[in-house]
Q: What sequence folds into this?
C-alpha cells in the first residue's frame, strides 16, 4: 500500500514538473520565437510593439509643458502600467531563459542571460522608474533619468522582424562595413592634416589645430557644409572640392554594402520558406 502511495506521489510530482517545464517552454517561445504563426503569439507581439511606440511618444509629449500639465495623471498612470508590464516581462524572461541551451543552469545560466545586450536593454527600460524610489537625486538628474526611458525603443528588436533583418545584415557585412569605416577615418585624418597646413596661416583661429580642422573635414565629407569653417586659399578650395566629391563616394560604399546584404538576407529567408521538393511556400 505504501509503495503504491509513493508511486502515485511520484507520478503526480512528475506530472506537475512536466506541466511546469512546458509552461516555461511556452513562455520562452512567446518571448523569443517571432516565427510562430498563431493568432495569440502575433497578437502579443503586435501589442508589445504598440506599447513600446506609445511609451516613446509619451516621453516626447512630456517635454511639452502644456501637455505635461494637462495630462499629467494620464501619463503617470500609463507609465505605471508600462513599467509593471515591462518588469513582469523582464522577470519572466529571466525565469524561462534556461530553456535555451546557451543559458543552462539555474544561476550561472541566468547570470549569462542578464548580461546579454537585449537583456540589458530590457533592464534599462524599467530601471529609471525605480531609481528615484531608492536613491535621492536632484530634479535635473531625475529629468535625465525619465528621458532615458527612450531606451525602450530598442525593445522593438525583440518583436519586429525588420529589426532582426537589420541585425542579420549588419552581422553578415560587418567586415566590409569595418573596412569602409577605417577608410573613412583615414581619409578624414589625411585631409584634415593637409588642410591644416594649407589654411592655418590664412585662418589661424578657425584652422587652429589638426583636431579643430577635423570638424571641417567631417562636415565636408558628409556634404553638410555648415559654413562655420571653410577654406579661403585657392589650394584649400581645391582640396575641399576633391574631398567633397570623395565624400559622396565614401557614403555610397556602405549604402551599396547594406543594399547587397538586405537583398541576400531576404533571398535567404525566402528560400528557407520554400519546400525543397515542390518549391511551394511551406507557410501557405
A:
Amino acid at each position: 500500500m505504501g509503495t503504491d502511495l509513493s508511486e502515485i506521489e511520484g507520478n503526480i510530482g512528475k506530472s506537475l514538473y512536466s506541466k511546469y517545464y512546458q509552461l516555461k517552454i511556452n513562455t520562452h517561445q512567446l518571448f523569443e520565437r517571432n516565427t510562430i504563426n498563431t493568432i495569440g503569439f502575433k497578437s502579443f507581439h503586435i501589442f508589445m510593439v504598440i506599447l513600446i511606440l506609445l511609451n516613446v511618444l509619451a516621453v516626447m509629449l512630456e517635454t511639452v509643458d502644456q501637455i505635461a500639465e494637462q495630462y499629467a495623471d494620464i501619463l503617470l498612470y500609463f507609465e505605471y502600467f508600462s513599467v509593471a508590464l515591462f518588469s513582469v516581462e523582464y522577470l519572466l524572461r529571466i525565469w524561462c531563459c534556461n530553456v535555451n541551451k546557451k543559458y543552462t543552469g539555474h544561476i550561472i545560466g541566468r547570470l549569462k542571460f542578464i548580461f546579454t545586450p537585449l537583456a540589458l536593454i530590457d533592464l534599462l527600460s524599467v530601471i529609471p522608474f525605480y531609481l528615484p524610489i531608492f536613491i535621492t537625486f536632484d530634479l535635473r538628474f531625475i529629468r535625465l533619468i525619465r528621458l532615458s526611458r527612450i531606451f525602450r525603443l530598442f525593445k522593438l528588436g525583440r518583436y519586429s522582424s525588420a529589426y532582426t533583418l537589420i541585425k542579420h545584415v549588419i552581422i553578415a557585412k560587418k567586415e566590409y562595413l569595418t573596412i569602409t569605416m577605417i577608410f573613412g577615418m583615414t581619409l578624414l585624418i589625411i585631409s584634415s592634416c593637409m588642410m591644416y597646413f594649407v589654411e592655418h596661416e590664412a585662418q589661424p583661429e578657425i584652422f587652429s589645430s589638426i583636431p579643430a580642422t577635423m570638424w571641417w573635414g567631417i562636415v565636408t565629407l558628409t556634404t553638410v557644409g555648415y559654413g562655420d569653417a571653410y577654406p579661403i586659399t585657392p589650394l584649400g578650395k581645391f582640396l575641399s572640392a576633391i574631398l567633397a566629391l570623395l565624400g559622396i563616394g565614401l557614403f555610397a560604399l556602405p549604402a551599396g554594402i547594406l543594399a547587397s546584404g538586405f537583398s541576400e538576407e531576404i533571398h535567404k529567408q525566402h528560400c528557407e520558406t520554400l519546400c525543397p521538393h515542390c518549391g511551394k511556400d511551406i507557410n501557405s
